[in-house]
Design goal:
Helix content is 29%, strand content 22%. It is an alpha/beta fold. It is globular, with a radius of gyration of 23 Å.
Length: 434
C-alpha cells in the first residue's frame, strides 16, 4: 500500500507539473529584425557601442556602429541602454537527460549499464519537454551539449539548441565527442592500513585492469577504422571519428599525473583530446599548449582539490590558462545549476580575467572546443543569429535581465515554470508580479 501511495503521489505531481502552461518552440523567422542602439558584445573581445545588428532567415546579415544603413521591411527593436550578447553555450551537461534527481528514476536517462559504451548516443535521450530547459534559457544559455555519464567510456554527445519540438529538431551538431572517465591514481592512505577481504581487488589493481581494457579497446578500434571489415561492430563504428578527426575524446580527469597520462594516450592513437575538469591543469600548461589540448573547467564557485592549494585557485584557474595560452572553456555541474553558468564566468573577472575574456569563455571558446565556431559563438555576419538582449551585465546575477532571445533568428519564449509559479502566488498574496 505504501508503494502504491508513493507511486500515486509521483504520478499526481507529474500531472500537476505538466498541467502548467506549456511553452511551444518559436516559429521560423519570417522577416528581417534589426536591433539598434545597443552595446554589442561580439564574443571575441570586441565591443561595439551604440551599435546595430540585423539578421534575416536565421543568419546575421549586418552589424556595426551607429545607425543601420538598411532597415527597409525590418522589425526594429530599440535596445538603447541595453546589452546584446552571443547566446551562451554550455558543454558537458546532463541538461535534458535528468528531470528529477531523487526519487524518480524514470526521469533520469544520463547513464547506461556497463563500462564500455562508446556506441551510446545521449542525443536520442534528450528531452525537449524538460521544464528545466526554459529556466536555463532565461539566463541566456541557448545551446548545450547533453552528455552521458557512468562507466569508463560513457558514450557520445551532440550539441543541441534549446528550443525544439524533439531531439531531431534540437540537433545542432551531432556526435561531436566520445566521453572517457580516466581511471584515477589513488593517493596513499594517510592513516594505518585497512584490512581487505581475502582475494579482494585493490584500487591499484582495478585501475591497471581498467587501463588495460581501454588500451585493448582503442587499439582494436583504430585497427577497425583503418580496415574494411566484413562484419559491422557498433562500438568500433562509433569510435571511427576519433581516428579520422571528426570526433574529439573528452576525458574527465582532474589530477596532473592523470592529465599527462590521458594526453599521452590520445597522442599515441592520433586522437584530439579535451580535458574536462582539469583542476590541476595549471601544473601542466606547457603540455596542454604544446599538444593543443583544451580544458573545459567545471565551475569556478567551488573549493580547490587539495587542502594545501590556494583557496582561491578555482577562481584564478581561467586566468592562469589564459596567460599560458591554453584554450579553455567553462561548464557547470549537473543540469539545473547550468543557469548559473554566466555567474560562474563572472566570478573569474574578480580574479584576473577581463569581462570580455570571461564572456569568451562561455561563447567562442566553448564553440571552438565543440567544433561549432564556424556557425556560432560570436556575433558576425554569416553566422547563426543566436543572441539575446539584457538590460544589464550578463555576467552579474544582480543586473542580468534577459528581455529577448533568439535562436537561429527565432524569437523564443522566455517564460518558464519559475515565472509561472511566481505570477501565480503573487496573485494569491497580493504582491504585484513583474
Amino acid at each position: 500500500m505504501k508503494k502504491i501511495l508513493i507511486f500515486g503521489g509521483l504520478l499526481l505531481s507529474t500531472v500537476l507539473t505538466y498541467a502548467q502552461a506549456t511553452i511551444s518552440p518559436a516559429k521560423p523567422q519570417s522577416k528581417p529584425i534589426t536591433i539598434t542602439g545597443a552595446t554589442i558584445h561580439i564574443g571575441d573581445g570586441r565591443v561595439i557601442n551604440n551599435g546595430y545588428i540585423t539578421f534575416e532567415k536565421g543568419k546575421i546579415t549586418a552589424i556595426g556602429e551607429g545607425n543601420s544603413p538598411n532597415t527597409s521591411g525590418a522589425e526594429i527593436i530599440d535596445a538603447t541602454g541595453k546589452q546584446v550578447y552571443p547566446g551562451f553555450i554550455c558543454p558537458v551537461t546532463t541538461l535534458g537527460l535528468i528531470e528529477v534527481e531523487e526519487g524518480a528514476k524514470g526521469t533520469v536517462d544520463a547513464e547506461e549499464t556497463g563500462e564500455l559504451n562508446p556506441n551510446v548516443r545521449s542525443l536520442i535521450a534528450y528531452n525537449t519537454d524538460s521544464k528545466v530547459i526554459p529556466t536555463v534559457r532565461s539566463n541566456g544559455i541557448l545551446l548545450a551539449q547533453p552528455t552521458p555519464e557512468g562507466g569508463l567510456l560513457s558514450g557520445q554527445s551532440s550539441v543541441v539548441q534549446l528550443d525544439a519540438w524533439n531531439w531531431e529538431d534540437a540537433a545542432y551538431k551531432t556526435d561531436v565527442a566520445v566521453h572517457l572517465n580516466w581511471p584515477v591514481i589513488r593517493p596513499a592512505r594517510r592513516r594505518g592500513p585497512v584490512a581487505a577481504l581475502p582475494g579482494a581487488e585493490s584500487p591499484d589493481e582495478a585501475r591497471l585492469k581498467a587501463l588495460d581494457a581501454l588500451n585493448n579497446l582503442f587499439t582494436e578500434a583504430k585497427a577497425y577504422a583503418e580496415a574494411k571489415p566484413d562484419v559491422i561492430n557498433l562500438r568500433f563504428e562509433a569510435m571511427k571519428g576519433l581516428f579520422k578527426g571528426t570526433k574529439k575524446l573528452f576525458v574527465n580527469v582532474d589530477g596532473a599525473k592523470e592529465i599527462i597520462e590521458a594526453v599521452t594516450f590520445a597522442n599515441k592513437l592520433g586522437m584530439q583530446a579535451v580535458i574536462v575538469g582539469g583542476k590541476e591543469s595549471y601544473l601542466v600548461t606547457n603540455l596542454l599548449r604544446q599538444n593543443n589540448v583544451p580544458v573545459i573547467i567545471k565551475e569556478t564557485q567551488t573549493l580547490p582539490a587539495r587542502d594545501e592549494d590556494d583557496v582561491y585557485l578555482p577562481y584564478k584557474l581561467p586566468k592562469i590558462l589564459q596567460d599560458a595560452g591554453v584554450l579553455y572553456g567553462l561548464t557547470g555541474i549537473g543540469f539545473w545549476r547550468q543557469r548559473n553558468l554566466p555567474f560562474e564566468a563572472g566570478q573569474a573577472v574578480g580574479y584576473g580575467l577581463t569581462k570580455e575574456q570571461a564572456l569568451s569563455m562561455i561563447t567562442i571558446n566553448n564553440a571552438r572546443i565543440l567544433g561549432i565556431d564556424k556557425t556560432t559563438g560570436t556575433l558576425e555576419t554569416g553566422k547563426d543569429a543566436n543572441l539575446f538582449i539584457s538590460e544589464g551585465d550578463a555576467l552579474d546575477m544582480i543586473t542580468l535581465n534577459v528581455t529577448s532571445a533568439f535562436i537561429q533568428g527565432r524569437n523564443i519564449s522566455l517564460d518558464n515554470l519559475h515565472k509561472q509559479l511566481y505570477r501565480k502566488f503573487s496573485d494569491k498574496y497580493g504582491k504585484k508580479a513583474d
